[in-house]
Amino acid sequence: MDQLTKLSNSTLGTLPAGIRVPKYDRSALTPGIVHIGLGNFHRAHQAWYLHRLMDMGLNHDWAIIGAGVRAPDAAQRDRLLAQDFLTTLIELDPSGRSAEVTGAMIDYVPVEEGNAPLIAQMADPAIRIVALTVTEGGYFVTAEGGFDVTHPDIAHDAANPDAPRTAFGAMVAALAKRRAEGNGPFTCMSCDNLQGNGAILRQVVVGLAALSDKELSEWIDAECTFPNSMVDCIVPATGPAELALVQSLGVDDTAPVTHENFRQWVIEDSFCAGRPDWDKVGATLTQDVHAYEAMKIRMLNAGHQVIANPAEILSVETIAGCMAHPLINALLRKVENDEFAPYVDAVPGMTPQDYIDLIARRFANPEIRDTTRRVAFDGSSRHPGFILPILRDALAAGGSVKGLALCEALWARMCEGTREDGTKIAPNDPHWDALQDAAIKAKDDPQVWIDQTTIYGSLGENPVFASAFADALNDIWAHGTEAALAAYTGK
């Protein structure tokens, strides 16, 4: 299409036919939520739910103000500011694509060192929820699950509570200001893929406050709520293909988002200052999120790690490509059925076996170009968050860990940095240098890999796991990845 329409408030009425646009008056919206971490997932998921509520004429006083605490967030702010904070969502369904412009976000806090604008915005009494999508590895959790008070950013925020580096330090500073001014607490809501994400967020916010102000820490712990939640939607990164796709629809959007035709949001109904009516647009509000989040994190998120690492080694570029690869597909099915499902409870309307079939269909969606590189990114957070808790349960129960050990060995093999076709794997983890060093040494001594206590804690000392891991890694290096997969799956 030759003529593109620049996305903005003024052009919503002139976008190409078939693109759904907001039905509400965006100029009348007022803020209620600050969301830190305005990546693709938030805009395809939480922001979409609120947008659909607003389309129903509801919750116009709950609009989102975006925020970030990293330098790259400033570029995202610029992109969204230039198009009035609108986003084009493109649903990729094998039966046909559809597009929708969402408008629940109305502003984005300037990104500045010391985070003064963010602190001031969160201290505004109109803000009743502060939500986050800052990645699983962003919560300063030790290998054993505690609060990492030794991290340099935490030490900085404890020493400089009025000019913090982290999102959590900014939340503490804003809550201190609200308490001093008598404006009451806000709900702190994590939307990251962490089991017990609300409890983990409480740990870091309350723990950080305690390092500089014990009374404030106690007030936050008593007055703020930290609901647990489970979020689910496959949302690829935006690159040249996604930009070309939105342009093919006739829209000039520099920050479009593609996503699958599936969403799920399960939220603990614990909000100290009110909440939007998310349940009216399909979210599940409950007092028991644990079973839902355990199923999703232990099967979908862990399943992504199962397939992404061998795919990188074997030069399979996409998750759909993984599902078309007979051995990687068989690996997923066997590990899920034999070593994941025994440690996952059913939820209303879904057994673990049904869920395996569901995620296999979702992963196989050929319209979703979700790269194995994106899914394999930050394994040093994702393996401890998704796979190692299952490994611990399996060891405690005396269950099989052969597949789990193979998955960890495949990660170690990937981190060596070369594919089996001889091409190099570019650094794909915040701790890549340390991982690659351990992976290279583990070729001769597999124990080196699982002796990384920042990742494995004491798991490397378990003789059952250590033996299974050594066997798997030695097999991969001796006979190749496909041979190791065939030996495990029987294919």
TrEMBL record:
Chain ranges of the Mannitol dehydrogenase C-terminal domain: 288-477
Pfam families reported in the protein's UniProt record: Mannitol_dh, Mannitol_dh_C
One MF term in the entry's GO annotations: oxidoreductase activity, acting on the CH-OH group of donors, NAD or NADP as acceptor
Coiled coil: none
UniProt KW Oxidoreductase keyword: yes
Residue intervals of the Mannitol dehydrogenase N-terminal domain: 32-280
Keywords: Oxidoreductase
This protein's name: Mannitol dehydrogenase family protein
Organism name: Meridianimarinicoccus aquatilis
The organism's taxonomic lineage, starting at the top: Bacteria, Pseudomonadati, Pseudomonadota, Alphaproteobacteria, Rhodobacterales
